[in-house]
Write a structure and sequence with these properties.
alpha+beta; six-stranded antiparallel sheet; 32 strands
């Protein structure tokens, strides 16, 4: 038997299904056996001491498992053997068939602990394992099983697949941290620019003023901009940057936090060139920063980041060349009162060399399989499926309106689609927050157990939106979150492609396609937006036919524009830009 001696590095090993691990200490040795998730980087889920003279056996294993052996004193021996009677990684009298119904075998092994919820019956040389599919991943607090110990996705999606927060070659054009950080405030009403100590963006040292608002624990302030109804305000940075910035081909970002009221009707960034910054200046470059109707700015607890391509800026008056930007400001126009904290305005080069399009399908509908997928596969294009209730695809008898687990796997493994995340059992949850969190954990566990690799990217649904109480759970379970809006035909021309690096991974935007309203020409207009700005355009469909003119028109145009636009999954986009941002 191989031996691990005191002082040697801890020994990690991964066992296949059907293996048996035996670990033994002699009469004077002590060791430790730890159990780890098969995902590298996860924390140990169990630690068992090995006493002098003790032997510990793990297995036969139903699924792959990862262990760590460490000799505390003396030496520890171990061996790895196949289970007697195991065939093809199974256990018992030969093979194990895990059945979802009488005629649908869905898996030979799962990465989850089945506990005591299995009914095993021997039939000759074959052992048949039958179970209620939902029970394998339902954690405490959700009806269906007891004794499931919970599941922490990876170590955390933030640790193993962090959101894009890196901006390579970033150039700050303005940093607002207090009222003294500006020298120009132009307004047409009772506008306030004051200190706010509740959430310092980047701040000044402790002083008497912030002492009264929390003291050293606060340690700084943010600049708060408030406006009354039917008025506007312009705030500009006090000091020009030393080295002017050429923003050609770049994207401009602004960071802010809406603390009260409703989003302003218009929020614009102004860029100034040398000699143009001042209270009487009418010479600047300007662009609207938000999507139509301010739909993406939310009142709540989070700072948000928005972006606009440099190509969207137009000259007001006679500013200098856009190759020489030295300062920046913001204009707010609102018919209702409100206030926000203002942080940075900065530029960053675009990470894409051509446009990108992501085509998604919500709700795990069967027509995604027999209509959308067939139409896209015929052109070699990939898509993203967001199962609306993953628990329903593992029920005993999936109905004709729901995709099956095998179909989801086929789309992923054979055609390169991403199976992203949405809901566990309902897109209108009314359970408690702990139970809701448990269901999200169950969903991530199920994805990993069944080999669905795209679950780190999620989708908001119905009564769970950005800034809501349940949103915190999403931010812990997923690396990105996507929403969608169905714009009218008249609004199509004002919808913009999203910039990269992604401004806010928990506020990804998509165009909701209504095939009774939107035409192939509308789709072409939106793709042209992505191509022109080298940005990202997402489309979300809900129900489709194979010959639908809107979908077919979109796919044919993308096929013809392959030199100018890439069709990809959300995972491919996030992985690509994360590698670029942190390389």
């Amino acid at each position: 038997m191989p031996t691990i001696s005191q002082g040697a590095p801890a020994y990690f090993l991964t066992l296949e299904a059907g293996n048996v691990l035996t670990v033994a200490a002699d009469a004077i040795s002590i060791g430790v056996l730890r159990t780890y998730p098969t995902t590298v980087g996860g924390e140990a889920s169990e630690s068992a001491p090995i006493a002098p003279g003790q032997t510990i056996t793990k297995g036969p294993l139903l699924s792959p498992a990862r262990y760590c052996i460490e000799a505390v004193s003396g030496s520890i021996q171990y061996s790895i053997d196949k289970s007697s009677g195991a065939a093809g990684g199974g256990v018992g009298g030969g093979a194990v068939a895990v059945e979802q119904s009488a005629n649908q075998v869905i898996a030979a092994a799962s990465a989850l602990n089945f506990g005591g919820g299995l009914a095993v019956s021997a039939a000759g040389s074959k052992a048949t394992v039958q179970f209620t599919p939902q029970s394998i991943v339902t954690p405490p607090g959700v009806s269906g099983i007891s004794g499931y110990s919970g599941y922490r996705p990876f170590a955390s999606p933030r640790e193993t697949a962090p959101p894009v927060v890196g901006y390579p070659r970033r150039k700050n054009l303005a940093t607002f941290f207090s009222p003294t950080s500006v020298n120009t405030v132009i307004n047409s009403g009772n506008i306030s620019v004051t200190s706010d100590y509740t959430d310092p963006f980047i701040g000044e040292a402790w002083n008497a003023s912030n002492s009264s608002a929390g003291g050293a624990a606060t340690n700084g302030q943010s600049m708060r901009v408030g406006w009354i109804a039917n008025s506007d305000v312009v705030v500009a940075r006090a000091t020009a940057i030393t080295n002017a910035d050429d923003i050609t081909g770049k994207n401009i970002y602004i960071q802010l936090k809406l603390v009260s009221g409703v989003p302003p009707d218009n929020l614009r960034v102004r860029l100034y060139t040398a000699g143009q910054l001042g209270s009487t200046s009418t010479n600047y470059w300007q662009a609207e920063i938000l999507y139509p109707h301010g739909g993406t700015l939310k009142t709540g607890q989070y700072w948000q980041t928005f972006a606009v391509p440099a190509a969207n800026f137009t000259a007001v008056g006679t500013p200098g060349a856009i190759t020489g930007i030295v300062s920046a400001g913001v204009q707010v126009v609102g018919t209702s009162a409100g206030a926000f904290l203002l942080g940075d305005i900065f530029s960053c080069p675009n990470l894409l060399t051509k446009g990108a399009v992501i085509i998604g399908f919500d709700d795990c509908r069967s027509d995604t399989w027999f209509a959308a997928a067939r139409t896209m596969v015929n052109r070699g294009l990939v898509g993203v499926c967001y199962p609306g209730a993953i628990a329903s695809v593992i029920r005993s008898s999936p109905d004709e309106f729901q995709m099956t687990l095998n179909q989801l796997r086929r789309m992923q493994n054979d055609y390169g689609w991403q199976i992203a995340s949405q809901a566990w059992d309902s897109e209108n949850p009314n359970d408690t927050l702990p139970d809701f969190a448990a269901k999200m954990s169950a969903m991530r566990a199920f994805y990993e157990a069944e080999g669905l690799r795209g679950g780190a990217d999620g989708s908001y649904f119905s009564n769970v939106s950005l800034g809501s109480a349940r949103d915190y759970t999403f931010r812990q379970c997923f690396r990105t979150m996507r929403s969608y809006t169905i714009w009218s035909a008249a609004q199509v021309g004002s919808v913009r492609a999203e910039c990269t690096p992604t401004p806010d991974p928990y506020n990804l935007q998509a165009f909701g396609v209504d095939t009774t309203v939107h035409t192939a020409a509308h789709m072409q207009t939106l793709v042209d937006q992505a191509i022109a700005k080298k940005g990202v355009m997402r489309f979300i469909f809900h129900g489709i036919t194979e010959s639908n003119a809107t979908l077919v028109g979109l796919l044919d145009y993308l096929d013809a524009q392959r030199a100018n636009v890439d069709v990809m999954t959300e995972a491919q986009l996030q992985d690509r830009q994360r590698n670029l941002a942190f390389s």
